[in-house]
Records
---
Amino acid sequence: MNAKEILHKKGTQIYAVNEEAKLREAIKMLNSRNIGVVLVTDNEGQLSGILSERDIIRRSLAQETGFRDENVTKTMTKGVVTVEKTATVDQIMDIMTNSRIRHIPVMEDGQILGLVSIGDVVKHKIAEAEHEAAELREYIATA
């Protein structure tokens, strides 16, 4: 299974804020949508960063007050790690593990197709293991 197939199963809903948005607006979106990350895009809709709950916590530790009224660009992670739609689940898992990230945008020709989370990867790996176990049980039963 690859990133495009994961997005086909889970949907391609993307939560994003413009890079001119205030951090306060992004926090409200995270809270109201019950999500852990929003993408940050420029005026052309191109990915310029990603803002996670961890980014907000780090920012709040560095500056206790006033930071929520600053632009998201001061808090977001720049240089976002992304994958192409053809990336396999194992490749995505390796990238997430090595980069210590929980969300990764899926791209095609510079356009954002969607977002894959560590939960999506785990769900696929569990389904894969269950399928293999069922095949082994069937093989043993017919042997």
---
Amino acid sequence: MTTTLPDQRKQTADVLNALFSPLEKHLAEYLKPQQIARIRDAFLFSAEAHAGQMRQSGEPYITHPIAVAHILADLRMDEATLIAAILHDVIEDTPTAREEIVHRFSEEVARLVDGVSKLTQIRFKSKAEQQAANFRKMMMAMVEDVRVILIKLADRLHNMRTLGVMRPDKRRRIARETLEIYTPIANRLGLNALRHELEDLGFKALYPLRYRVLAQAVKKARGNRNEIMQEIQHRFENRFREEGLTAEIQAREKRLYSIYRKMVQKHLSFSEVSDVFAIRIVVDSVDDCYRALGIVHNLYKPLPGRFKDYIAIPKANGYQSLHTILFGPHGISLEVQIRTREMHQFAESGIAAHWLYKAQGDQGSITQARTREWLRDLLEIQQKAGNPQEFLESVKVDLFPDEVYVFTPMGEIFELPRRATVVDFAYAIHTDVGNTCVACKIDRRLAPLSTQLQNGQTIEVITAEGAEPNPNWLSFVVTAKARTNIRNYLKRLRDEEAIRLGHRLLTKSLNALDTDLDSVPAERIEALLKEYHYNQLSDLLRDIGLGKRMAPLVARLLSADNSEDGDNAGQVTARNAPITISGTEGLVVTFGKCCYPIPGDEIAGFLSTGRGIVVHRRNCPNAADLGKHPERWLELNWAKEYTGEYQAQIVIHAHNVRGGLARMAGAVAETGADIDDVRFDDRDNNITVVNILLRVKDRTHLARVMRRVRREKGIIKVSRS
């Protein structure tokens, strides 16, 4: 029996309804019907855009964005975020243009989707410089709109949940990346529920044997302690009723990765971890928190020195609770956490809770305030950091802080990372205080500026007018703000030296061309500064002195057409022929065969003996290796107008079926691209891996080729090499 077209459409509609229905019920808990209708519209749009695409698990691709939206709905995110989550791969993986999203939905949604698409291109590599640059992109995307990172975190969580279909080596790489980058960001934003799941999934994938052993140990301990925990919970409930205090009391279990990290950091065996099992008490008000603390301390004795008041002094991410360790029955140690309902909401959802409370008219929370403050600091550090590695080094200290709390002589509390020094404290007060500090008093006694601070100390910083930061401070400061400001001050001193050196190098290169800087028309200098986006000549000279610009190349541009009449004096270019790369006029330019850059890629140039300027994609692995010679690197941009075709290479994973290669070639030909070479990298009984070297016009043309090939039967994956 033949299935008619209307029947097929009905089946498709039924499948899509079945996919969206659970999310729709979830959204109905907090969104209005008209908002849900717009989200459904986005779902249907995304399903059509991703039609025919499959995940490695064999499921339709649309199951992934709908799962990401589910995760964000758990966080009670707003309509724009949910729509962007459902559309987050359409720009990258389908022919959909950004303008279409603006027209169909909104500029806000398009901006979020565009932000996530740019982050999707990030690949965390082992090479420190490449990883640092990618990390900076993550942080700056978060500064622009934190919802971009929330979508990316939800995207990563669903990918971690479905990690089992990956090769073991790829699973480990993704798991390590998750634990090193994504979970610290989730922690800093207060997204504890999401962070804990990411940590446990990453732990399981990276260290499967350790995970199983620890899970078995916890299961065994759980069986021994179930009755004891129930006994404690009943005693708490009875006493709270007697005192007339309303509370929700829950027994909870520490997450496996948290147990593992504590064992590693403190060199403990599993039996020595005291807070594997705990009690969480949720009450109505802050006053009730302290009343509850008194009740539990009357029932069981507290361990001396193990009480922490995170309500009076919240953690860096805004987390608030009372923590205490008790001597429980039968000699066990028991952790108790006490918090209000609002504190619990923010403890689980962090900054994401902002959108729920915003809808309810709430003015904000400590979590939001702390996050805004941290994002402002990130922006300041980004502006002052000299390079991506410096930025990474500075910010990573702040991602998983183990806090210490100290006081000014006026009683103001400052929160700093563990091992912070007096200089860190001085910069926390104000940049000018840090720059001019010369001595200090800790609890009214003189102490060195390098002294590491302890909880509860009172710090007085002594400053002197005209004092300057000491380069030796970099050997002991730990906070991003201190390190960045010290380096920024020293950088200003280095800049003056770099300008003098750049002037000497450029003068020498111009002399080799039988001219000098004074002979170059002012109009030509202005044109070159505008072309390279410099405000003044000293900026160009500084970059030459720092090795960011090549003096011979700049000299050649400045001296071009110097002997001709003054009508052309303001022109930088020396030829009328089309120029592919801006600023390479008259020079030999070749394209790296390692990465095959094409118009639309971010590019850089390497000055190679005998080959002229070799153009690489910025994310090319070889470019990272060549970074050992920064003095030979040039910043390059594609010309506004370019012509011709450029080589690019794609890798196709496909099921091994008869006629498959012919269909791939036909699909490529349909898009107007030419094939230069075909190579088979790997072949087994089921899967074929094909490398195809193409000629395309630009990235847009290449994307069209890849989308067309993906539609062929038996295609598993198409990527660019």
---
Amino acid sequence: MAPTGDDDHYRPKDAIAAGVNGALVTGGAGLFAAAIQNSLQKRNVGAWGIFTRGGATIATFTAVGGVYEFSHRAAANLRAKDDHYNNAIGGFLAGSILGVRYCLAGRIPGVLGWGALTAVILSVYEYTGGSLKGFAKDPNVDEYERKEMLRQSRRRPIKETLAEVGEGRSIRPPGYEERRRQRLKETYGIDIHTVSADANV
């Protein structure tokens, strides 16, 4: 969430509970991912293969979720502010866990790169509203009135639209047939007489 200035009323959050909850949720996702990896093995490895072969996947998922949630809330508590910098701190620490395999190979820039990447992604996501569906709607405004206001503010006159788009292609404003007949006569020298399917005309 973008900085709002309402930092005077910060209420501390339970970082340990959030970390445990995050670890459980992402650990479950890691277990699911390990089960999928196990089921896609070419040879039968058995059900315990989820833990023997996918243990690293489960542990990584669990650690990333737990560290992110804990450090995000702990940073907010220490700073007494709830803003996008907390997401950057949590994202950096969680992303660093994703880069641990580079650290084991003796390459520290991989750890820093993964940390920086996730920090930037999570902080920008939070700064721009924290939603993929756009900004939250005002609960005090009626939905019908809001849509009518949007229609009125974005509605353009038909003459302006026709001037930009032009006629034809199923766009037939009043007088279109006469103008079309005149253009065909000027261009090709053909005089077209329209016939109505209505017998009363």
---
Amino acid sequence: MLLLGLQSAYADIGFRKWEEDPDEPKWQESEATLPAFPKDEDLLEFYVSAVTPNRFFVDAKSISVGTDGVVRFALVVKTAGGATNVSFEGIRCGAMEYRLYASGRADGTWAKARASEWKPIENKPVNRHHAALNRDYFCPSTAPIGNPEEGRDALKRGKHPDAK
């Protein structure tokens, strides 16, 4: 029984080594440049879930697609209690990860995130905004949008035409 378990573990490790191409260059993230602080007239609201009391927006002017394949954007969340949270974030489509680069301050400036690392996108019932942006707007068929206009168009339509 123990031998069977070890054999299975070894086979799994061998399979993963076979899948990874040692000659393929490792992914390298481009430097993220903070955008201008969002203005209300540039916000595009997007649907997240029927169960969330919050409203979610992306600043249309902040959307960018890096040479690294990361879709970056300013996110604005307006809570039912009246608070507004502003952040500058990025999504890696194929990896299904997001990253917080900066948080917005009340005076309209950015504060760079202290612990900025890639985290898995979770499809939670209430605040599933990263999952919605990933699947429905910025990463149709797991590939990033081709340009910022494609992202703005998806947000205006309510969904990317290629989203499943």
